[in-house]
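Ops channel
N.P.: pipeline sanity check, posting one input/output pair.
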């Protein structure tokens, strides 16, 4: 029999439902450790954790302190390299991802839980071999969430993809996180792509990150205007998945199908 696997459950406060979830995980044969509100223990727990499960409170998006805690938890878990599942209200998911791009890296499960799907996902996560994830990190900046989700779907098997929906969110993200390349929407309201690029070039920590513009306008004048800003390149938004992957492959010197 193999070594027993460990799950760390991260919660804001105890409830009857949380206790039921603990019991279910233990019934599946896992040791369960629970962190309640004292989130500073997350990194220390990583040495004995095979999977984190974050159980969000209701209406978390309406509580500033709970939002701050969510961002902290996501960043702390990311630093451990351990996989995390997030359980929350379906209505919170899109909003929270727009505020905290790193949340996109974790599997989300809507409440009420489909327990069969959830337990199958836990079992799969526990049996998958641990492989060092050396994928490059791409930050996608686009105010069109539908388009951004499509592009993320194209890339997520090959790269770590983070999505933010506004120029200033990109700056905030890069203060706390590293990116190897930025896909930047040229036409955005409030702070457009040109302004974001200018800000990136002014900061030592971000000035060398390759930036590729995404643009929906392919006229000669528009392309010349984009290229005058000296990005690493530009991609028309009507491009194909294959073409975009090839462009990113060339820029990052990465091998997509080496496995």
């Amino acid at each position: 029999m193999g070594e027993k696997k460990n799950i760390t459950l991260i919660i804001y406060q105890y409830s009857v439902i949380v206790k039921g979830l603990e019991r279910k995980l233990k019934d599946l044969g896992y040791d369960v450790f629970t962190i309640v509100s004292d989130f500073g223990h997350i990194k220390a727990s990583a040495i004995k954790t095979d999977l984190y499960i974050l159980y969000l409170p209701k209406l978390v998006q309406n509580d500033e302190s709970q939002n701050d805690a969510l961002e902290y938890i996501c960043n702390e878990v990311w630093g451990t390299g351990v996989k995390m599942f997030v359980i929350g209200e379906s209505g919170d998911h899109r909003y929270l991802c727009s505020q905290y791009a790193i949340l996109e890296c974790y599997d989300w499960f809507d409440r009420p839980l489909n327990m069969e799907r959830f337990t199958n996902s836990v079992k799969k996560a526990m049996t998958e071999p641990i492989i060092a994830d050396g994928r490059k990190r791409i930050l996608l900046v686009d105010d069109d969430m539908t388009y951004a989700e499509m592009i993320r779907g194209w890339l997520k098997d090959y790269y770590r993809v983070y999505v933010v929906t506004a120029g200033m969110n990109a700056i905030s993200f890069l203060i706390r996180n590293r990116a190897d390349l930025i896909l930047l929407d040229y036409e955005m309201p409030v702070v457009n792509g040109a302004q974001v690029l200018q800000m990136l070039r002014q900061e030592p920590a971000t000035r060398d990150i390759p930036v590729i513009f995404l643009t929906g306008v392919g006229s000669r004048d528009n392309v010349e205007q984009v290229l005058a800003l000296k990005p690493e390149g530009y991609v028309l938004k009507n491009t194909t998945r294959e073409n975009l992957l090839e462009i990113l492959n060339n820029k990052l010197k990465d091998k997509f199908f080496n496995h």
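N.P.: looks fine end to end. The mean pLDDT is 84.
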